[in-house]
Specification:
This protein has 312 residues and is of the alpha/beta class. 28% of the residues lie in helices and 22% in strands. Keywords: Transferase.
């Protein structure tokens, strides 16, 4: 298993899913639906269940939890409120939207502590009243191999808090501006780029500073990765919102069907040199402005050794 590609993930089954009105102001990836809230939620649940089935069939461990919040429409995207790291570290993060703060749940952390070796839970969520936000591996795209955290500037990624988190977890922060053609900042770094073991996908044309862009491309390529440039249209189709996972038969890149359809034959061929593809159909869930990477909170922790007869 690659340190970059976890073999287990945490997923939260949505309850009252809908595009979140509290995040619509800065998440230009959100799209309105003409369905009723009930139909939207039902379709989201069906897509979620099918995705879990496909992941498990590929040999990936899925720790599934059910959301039951009265106002947690984005609960299906848990990678924003917590992350896990080698060495036994779990981090909890302060969230920008008020209704997203209710997504944090201790039963998830307790499962991680029971099933994996957790040395420390670093809780930064208490900084929300101070207006300091850092939305997990949405705001940070982490290169676990080179120990780098890539971060696009936004009000969801406070630079002071970022330095504190990176110092605590042992990453070098690389911060940069990224904007779409209209000048709107990219709200989360993980819609712009994905870092795998042998490949990286990035909408580098959306980074206006040429010197910074070149530096980032060089750093991504350092471990021998093939760095694949994505167009802004491909970023809009969530081609950058992917995650590499480890399976018993080798690595796979989990991404949406929307994302896969946006990639060119040449890009797909280059990806498949390094990893298989595991496309998931989640068009309703993508209306909330996130895709497959946002749904999967990777578990980068060492599993505990189970005693004989212990139930999994």
């Amino acid at each position: 298993m690659s340190v970059q590609a976890p073999s287990a993930v945490v997923m939260i089954r949505p309850d009252r899913f809908r595009p979140n009105p509290q995040t619509a102001g800065d998440n230009v990836f959100q799209t309105a639906s003409d369905l009723s809230d009930e139909d939207t939620a039902a379709r989201a649940q069906s897509e979620f269940d099918a995705a879990v089935t496909r992941l498990r069939a590929a040999g990936i461990t899925v720790h599934e939890f059910q959301d039951s919040g009265a106002d947690t429409p984005d609960a299906v995207f848990p990678n924003n409120w917590f992350s896990t790291h080698s060495g036994g570290y779990v981090a909890l993060y302060p969230m920008y939207a008020e209704n997203r703060r209710a997504e944090r749940r201790w039963d998830v952390i307790e499962l991680l502590k029971a099933r994996y070796r957790v040395q420390e839970v670093a809780d930064f969520s208490g900084l929300e009243p101070d207006g300091l936000f850092l939305e997990g591996t949405g705001a940070m795209v982490i290169d676990h191999i080179s120990r780098v955290a890539y971060v696009a500037r936004s009000h969801r990624a406070d630079p002071i808090l970022l330095e504190r988190v990176c110092t605590r977890l042992g990453y070098e922060p690389i911060v940069f501006d990224a904007r779409d053609a209209s000048g709107t900042p990219v709200y989360h770094t993980n819609v712009l780029m994905a870092v795998g073991t042998g490949i990286a996908l990035i909408g580098d044309g959306m980074i206006p500073d040429a010197a910074r862009r070149a530096e980032i491309l060089d750093r991504l390529a350092e471990p021998g990765r093939d760095v694949i440039s994505l167009s802004e249209a491909q970023i809009r189709a969530f081609a950058g919102n992917a995650i590499e996972l480890s399976t018993p038969t080798g690595p796979v890149l989990a991404l949406s069907e929307t994302a896969r359809a946006a990639l060119t034959p040449d890009q797909l061929s280059r990806i498949e040199v390094a990893t298989g593809l595991l496309p998931l159909s989640i068009p309703t869930l993508e209306r909330a402005g996130g895709s497959v990477r946002c749904m999967l909170a990777g578990v980068h922790l060492a599993p505990r050794t189970r005693s004989k007869g212990q139930v999994a």
